[in-house]
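Blackboard transcription, Thursday session:
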Amino acid sequence: MSRNLISYGMLETSGWIYEGKDLMVNFYKNDKKVISGKYHQGLYYLQGTVSREEANLSKVEKNMTNVWHSRLGHMSLNNMSELVKRGFIIDKEVKTLDFCEHCIIGKSHKQSFPKVKHVTKGILEYVHSDLWGSPSTPDSLAGNKYFVTFIDDFS
Ligand SMILES: [Zn+2]
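(Written on the board underneath:)
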């Protein structure tokens, strides 16, 4: 699938505002228009280019602003301009920042799970499971990096 879908509700819970008129939709963040979309066959198609991973840019002309944006952990254009002023980035490499899908999705607000009451009637009818650990955490005394828990809801 070469396209991603963006949820209006997800954007709205992240402080985005949208308005639609004449089969066009505009998205605003902090009273600033960020991107617009045009209606076609049941969907709004966002107008703009999507920032891809650095590796994918080698096939097409590289937008070095977006490359620096990715390298610096999705730094804002204002902060990258500050690095240019201080001589850390070459001036001609920071111009305009294209639409960055990672920023929109990554900065969206995560919602907690809603409270659910389970009505189980027997053992192993509903089991809660969780995986914990990461490659960067110290090994356990037994030399393991991960552990998994299984908790039977009924018992
Ligand atoms: Zn970004």
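Lecturer's comment: The helical segments are 8-13, 64-71, 77-85, 101-106.
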